[in-house]
Amino acid sequence: MPTPGTVRAPLVLVGTVAVLALLAAGCGGSSESSAFGGRRRHPATTAATAPPTSPAPATVPATTPPATFGAGNTPEAAISAYEVARTPSRQYAGPCTDTELPRDVGKWCSALLSDPTDSRTYSVGPAFAESEERLTLVRNGAIWSVTAHAPSPQPGG
What we know:
- By secondary structure, the protein is α+β, with helices and mostly antiparallel strands.
- It has a domain at 70-151.
- Helices cover 22% and strands 29% of the residues.
- It has two helices and eight strands; from the N terminus they run αβββαβββββ.
- 15% of the residues are buried.
């Protein structure tokens, strides 16, 4: 008659093999149960096998306003908002043609370079000195916005 320890060893081995077989059957890719209780296998999707995605279109809807750096109901208000946003202590005096000594020393002013209907270019800098920047403003409805800025071209450069 077998001893209790010798019967238990084959049963443990059979149980372990059964568990391993079930685990191996359930781990081979994604699957889902069918209506009849069976399992349908689907190939696993990975980054390497996934279909390539195309980037978002580069066009911007016409209703999206351009990026702004300063805005106001007049070009001068937009330039002032831009200058204060860049340097909070900076004061904007308005058009350079309207500046006066000594009242506007240390303030910044602007000079209109081009004046199409809904877009303008200004040269901006300290009053009574060379300009330091060029600003492009665009009108969207009743609001003027600074949409581009760049250093002013220097003489001889």
